[in-house]
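__Protein archive entry__

___
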Amino acid sequence: MDFAVGLARCPGTCGEWVQGARKGVPFLIDCPIDRFSEARVALSFDAAGWDLPLNKTKALQVLELLKESLGLPQLGGKVEFSHQLPEGKGMASSTADITAVAAAALMALGEDPAPERLAQFALQIEPSDSVMFPGITEIEHVQGHKHRWLGSSVPALFLALDWGGIIDTRAFNARPGLAEHYRRHESDIERAYKLACEGIEQGDLEKLATAGTISARCNLEVNHKPLFEPFLTWVRQKGGLGVVTAHSGTLLAGVFPQTSVFSLEARKKLRLEAQQRFSPAYLDLFHSHSGGIVTAESETTENTG
């Protein structure tokens, strides 16, 4: 066998429901959505190079890590992406890329793309989200010591805005004063964490959105979003329950119930009014997602020449 092909898809996030620190250890609770990074990895067993887009440096890093961990120095191949996640907004685009590529490569090799294994690869590259796990998962996203499944995703509609700019995840998590910021807000984050856990366990979106709002407001100290309060007020006036933010990104989203009240026509009106009132550089509507990777059976091709 000379070639093998693996396919994998990983969701992104609408920021994090909660992000902060517990006893000085940073953690987050992801907010997975129905936007994805998809990767097709065609492996060659007699070439050492990789053919992939030049900007996908973190995908290249995980391929090299995988090659080293499996003891396959001659492994190479081609990677193709189908991407629905804008970069630098806090939507876990890097983690989704890393995870999708690693999962596709492992599938091609007949290896198990277990979420724990994928998280270990991702955390060697940068502080990472927990999108490789199904449901909603708490993870120590910097030190990577622990993760905990909190429950199934709660149905929700997100109206997400972004006013431009890019935040680098590694630079954000290395910034001076971040540990002190987390320490100051530890009690608020603990309150948000408890509400989030209750909301997930009970399927109560209002509690989850309240948790998201508390955490997002704490985050303003290190990642200011000038239109936060006007947007939150408007969201609540329109039937929303609160907001969720990208703590190390530029995204801010209103959290709405996923009910018949928000029909297709109502959603169009919501988008239009948000565009007119807040003039974002980026605007989209997402739904919550069950989280976790999806892989396809690998294909193999023999070189008969």
Observations:
- The CA atoms of residues 132 and 292 lie 5 Å apart.
- The mean pLDDT is 92.
- The first strand starts at residue 3 and ends at 22.
- The chain has one domain: 3-296.
